[in-house]
Write a structure and sequence with these properties.
The structure holds 2 protein chains of 2 kinds. Chain A starts with a strand and ends with a helix. Chain A has a single domain, classed as Rossmann fold, CATH 3.40.50.300. In chain A, the strands form 2 sheets. A 6-stranded mixed sheet of chain A has the order 6-7-8-3-9-10, sandwiched between helices. In chain A, strands 2-1-4-5 form a 4-stranded antiparallel sheet. Chain A is an alpha/beta fold. The radius of gyration of chain B is 20 Å and the shape is globular. Chain B is built from 14 helices and no strands. The longest helix of chain B is centred in the middle third of the chain and has 27 residues. By secondary structure, chain B is mainly alpha-helical. The chains are: A alpha/beta, B mainly alpha.
């Protein structure tokens, strides 16, 4: 059974068809590299999967729960980090994570918070106000709030955006550690990230899936990934 | 089918968590203290200098409560502007909507936090009640019912403010539209506007319009009457505000 299932998703904003008939499914152990030019419908697709937006037609399910019909069940299985890792700037890292843990309905909040702080290497800044964090810590916090409840589905919108090479390495390391037990979608602009992290590639352009294949097959398409990407999204 | 059972907070856990976060959020910025100071300064000076509380030589607080609809119309939107607008601006609305809690739980938690904040502003004015008690022998029951009425009135204004805040990502716009809407509710039943309406409509229609205004519903409380109708009025405005803001947040 697929942990993430998108069936013919469609969404328009007025006259603009942001997503037109997107379908795919993701199984446990897969890490999907979700690629596409800006404005291709990547973020909209992700928002439809997370239940943040409602589709005009089609359906999305997380762990077999339809995100529109059973939103609470679907959301409880999902960890999501939106683009730019938004958080309440005036709270400290620890306060924020314990707030998230409460809203996730977790039992032993202190333990979950401390474990997540350690996992994401945030313990040093736990008492710091989020507004004062550097970009690297901030992105890791976005990641931390998405994994605090150890969800079976993880959706990350540009989790390594703006990070330096060391920080990128760090985020990828954590992701790889937990990927085997989860279905993961990572949207990214960084084509090299695919080689390192992903098991499968989905490329979306103008609201449609242009390519959905295993990484190995995708890498056969040519040596210059940027060129392959341009051709597929043209 | 799934490997883990449903893990989601109970409704009260969610509401309580949101309430606590929001309420402490007010006191994380100096704005809260400015707000409390402004509310008190206005509440007390309006009562003494405009309402002539002292010169009137009557040991009650109806001249104090008389100005509360104005105060709330201005300050409830100020306190409520951040409720949703801030979430939109920070992008945290995306998180809220992907946690396993319903929008109404979040909306209720937020509303109660803001209401509690307004209640604390009101609470600080209690020395004025002692002042009146010191100068004369007021009816304590009337003063208590006045405070209850004022608090309910604050809740109604806050409900309106919550809708305004759900509609925009700008706190300034949320404040201005919230204020204008509350201002309209205050005007229904106030002197000048009343005369204006009387020129257009029959006295019966004017009376009905008055019943929809804040002042007409607060008045019985200041006289010590805990009437069913105004209580229902204030609470239904407040809860419609919560309900409508929930719908706005959900339908996007």
């Amino acid at each position: 059974m697929a942990l993430i299932e998108a069936k013919d998703l469609r969404k328009s904003y007025g006259p603009i068809h942001a997503v037109r008939g997107v379908s795919f499914s993701v199984n446990r152990g897969e890490v999907i590299g979700f690629l596409g030019p800006n404005g291709a419908g990547k973020s909209t697709t992700m928002k439809l999967l997370t239940g943040h937006l409602q589709p005009d037609s089609g359906s999305a399910s997380i762990a077999d729960f339809d995100v529109v019909q059973s939103p609470i069940e679907a959301k409880s299985q999902l960890g999501y980090s939106p683009e730019g890792a938004p958080a309440y700037g005036e709270m400290t890292v620890r306060e924020f994570l314990s707030f998230v843990a409460q809203l996730r309905g977790l039992k032993d909040i202190r333990k979950h918070v401390e474990d997540t702080l350690a996992l994401c290497r945030l313990t040093d800044v736990a008492g710091q106000t989020i507004d004062t964090l550097s970009k690297g810590y901030r992105m890791r916090l976005g990641f931390a709030q998405a994994v605090i409840h150890d969800p079976s589905v993880l959706i990350l919108d540009e989790p390594t955006d703006g990070l330096d090479p060391n920080q990128k390495f760090e985020v990828r390391r954590i992701l790889k550690e937990m990927a085997a037990r989860k279905a993961v979608i990572v949207s990214t602009h960084i084509l090299e990230e695919i080689e390192e992290l992903c098991t499968r590639i989905i490329i979306i352009a103008r609201g449609e899936v242009r390519c959905d294949e295993p990484k190995e097959v995708f890498l056969q398409r040519g040596n210059d990934l940027n060129k392959v990407f341009r051709e597929l999204t043209a | 089918m799934s490997d883990s059972t449903l893990v989601a907070p109970s409704a009260w856990t969610a509401i309580w968590a949101v309430l606590r976060r929001e309420f402490s959020g007010y006191f994380r910025t100096p704005l809260a203290y400015v707000f409390l100071a402004v509310f008190n300064a206005f509440a007390i000076s309006l009562a003494f200098f405009v309402g002539n509380l002292y010169e009137a030589n009557v040991a009650n607080l109806d001249r104090f409560f008389l100005y509360h609809p104005w105060l709330w119309a201005f300050l409830a939107p100020a306190a409520g502007a951040r409720l949703w607008a801030e979430e939109r601006k920070q992008g945290t609305i995306e998180l809220i909507l992907t946690w396993p809690v319903t929008a109404w739980q979040t909306a209720l938690g937020k509303f109660l936090a803001a209401w509690l904040f307004l209640a604390s502003a009101l609470f600080i004015t209690i020395p004025i009640a002692f002042t009146v008690g010191f100068l004369g022998s007021p009816d304590v029951g009337v003063i208590i019912s006045g405070y209850i009425g004022s608090l309910l009135c604050a809740g109604a204004c806050l409900g309106v403010a919550a809708i305004a805040s759900a509609l925009t990502r700008s706190q300034v716009i949320a404040f201005v539209t919230g204020f204008l809407a509350c201002f309209a509710l205050v005007m229904m039943g106030y002197g000048i506007f009343d005369d204006f309406l009387a020129g257009i409509f029959s006295p019966r229609v004017v009376e009905e319009i008055r019943r929809l205004g804040l002042w007409r519903n607060l008045e019985p409380f200041t006289l010590g009457v805990l009437d069913f109708r105004p209580i229902v009025y204030f609470l239904s405005v407040a809860f419609s505000g919560i309900g409508i803001s929930t719908l706005i947040i959900e339908r996007r």
